[in-house]
Design goal:
It is an enzyme of class 1 (oxidoreductase). The chain has 15 helices and 11 strands. It is of the alpha/beta class and 331 residues long.
């Protein structure tokens, strides 16, 4: 059990917000597989304030996934405050502010990681949002803008002073993007300075990494991002390891059932045809590393609905089951 403000989480595992990935169907599945907290895709504060339909659609949620954190980004304090209010009105249990995104289209607006170059603006945004936000407020940062700039510890202390309930640290500089290695010692230093919970993020690609980051840094929670895209079972695997069990790869039947479930959920939200198009890329992630997956990708690109989806995966998984019965390793 873990608390962020007054919100109770079943465990310390958090699904990171990822554009194009952490939509409602994906969040529903990782919640089912053990995530203690799921987070929306990163949402533009201005998009919410201006009433853009596509942006507002990112707020769609389901009671099963609760508690839900909604992450917003922007550079204008008044817009960020109003966006937080809109998100809470639409069911957000936690508001998370992105202050670390390295994407150029976000940086050029002065938002995301660019804010780490302007601590005055950081304080203004946090103060404005905290004033109107009655649910827990969290912030996601990086180590800083670049080496030699303001240290993550100092940024974290400001975040805490402004009333945030927790801080997530991705220990790369904004200028690094996703290159190089995450420096978990940064998380350790931040944890030693702050009283609020500190969540560790970055280069957690296996259940063992999740254990290592907690033991190495003392962080209160673990946020998992890209590793969950092709392996949403990682949450279940981490929990098994924490409980003294073994980390087992999902059975072929589990993979197959999850693919069908994912498609069904996408269809409910986007319609069958659009869901079919989205599933083509998702299937590549779900089958990455499995034998002969490249040979079946041609079939995946022809998916146009439930029938063709089932036909494609039936063909591929029958092949995998045959190899498994023959004693070949498949994972």
């Amino acid at each position: 059990m873990f608390f962020i403000g007054n919100v109770r989480l079943e465990n310390r595992l958090i699904m990171a917000p990822m554009a194009g990935i952490t939509n409602l169907p994906f969040r529903m599945m990782v919640k089912k597989l053990g995530a203690g907290l799921v987070t929306s895709e990163m949402i533009s504060a201005m998009g919410l304030v201006l009433g853009d339909k596509k942006t507002r659609d990112y707020l769609k949620s389901h009671p099963f996934e609760r508690p839900l954190a909604v992450q917003i980004f922007g550079a204008r304090p008044e817009a960020m405050a109003l966006a937080a209010e809109i998100a809470v009105e639409n069911g957000a249990d936690i508001i998370d502010i992105n202050m670390g995104c390295p994407a150029k289209k976000v940086i050029k607006t002065g938002a995301g990681g660019a804010l780490l170059n302007d601590l005055t603006k950081v304080r203004q945004i946090l103060t404005a949002v905290r004033r109107v936000c009655y649910v827990p407020l969290t912030v996601k940062i990086r180590s800083g803008w670049a080496a030699g700039g303001t240290a993550a510890e100092e940024i974290g202390l400001m975040v805490e002073d402004c009333g945030a309930d927790a801080l997530t640290v991705h220990p790369r500089f904004v200028t690094q993007g996703f290159s190089g290695c995450a420096d978990w010692d940064v998380i350790l230093r931040v944890k030693r300075r702050l009283k609020i919970p500190v969540i560790g993020n970055g280069d957690i690609v296996s259940p063992e990494h999740a254990q290592h980051i907690r033991s190495q840094t003392g962080c209160d929670g673990v946020m998992i991002g890209r590793a969950a895209v092709g392996n949403p079972w990682i949450f279940k695997q981490i929990l098994a390891l924490e409980n003294g069990g073994k980390t087992a790869a999902p059975l072929l039947s589990e993979r197959k059932d999850l693919i069908v479930e994912h498609y069904a959920l996408l269809s409910q939200i986007k319609g069958e045809l659009r869901a079919a198009r989205d599933m083509r890329g998702i299937l590549i992630s779900y089958t990455k590393g499995l034998p002969k997956s490249r040979c079946f990708r041609g079939a995946f690109t022809k998916i146009s609905g439930l029938d063709t989806l089932v036909s494609a995966i039936d063909s591929y998984f029958s092949f995998l089951e045959g190899r498994s019965n023959a004693g070949d390793l498949i994972s």
